[in-house]
Structures are given as C-alpha cells and as structure tokens.
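Private note to self, pasted from the team thread so I don't lose it. Backbone tokens:
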C-alpha cells in the first residue's frame, strides 16, 4: 500500500485492509509514496493506493469488493 505520513485516508484504509487481510494471513507492506520522486509523481495524488501482486486494486478509499475479486483471482490455479 502506498501511503503518506499524516494522511487520514491512508490510516483509514490501513485499518480497513488489516481487518480484511489479517484473518487470511496476508501481510501488508506500507510504502511511503514520498520516498521516491517517481512514486510521488505517479501515485502521490491518489494516496492511499492499494496494490496486490503488483496490480492496482483501489485508491482513495478501500473497495472491499475489489479486494475480494483480486484475492479470488490470485487464488485460482493457473
């Protein structure tokens, strides 16, 4: 998850996503969007931004349906 210090929406999404993922044993990596100029330019105006396996899941607010779809997609055998 791309986040920013002091971002209320980021803190809200982190709490919401932790509730969804902790029961499934999925770790959450929080990345400071301002740590690199490239990340800040690409996603700084969209924080928080949630990714899973490199795929954009949602930004701004948590979309539980998108999270469920993403997790279901990644659980399917290839």
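Design output:
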């Amino acid at each position: 998850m791309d986040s920013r210090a002091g971002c209320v929406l980021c803190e809200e999404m982190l709490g919401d996503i932790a509730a969804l993922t902790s029961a499934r044993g999925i770790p959450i990596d929080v990345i400071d969007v301002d740590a690199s100029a490239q990340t800040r330019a690409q996603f700084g105006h969209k924080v928080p931004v949630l990714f899973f396996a490199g795929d954009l899941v949602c930004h701004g607010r948590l979309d539980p349906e998108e999270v469920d779809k993403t997790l279901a997609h990644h659980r399917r055998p290839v």
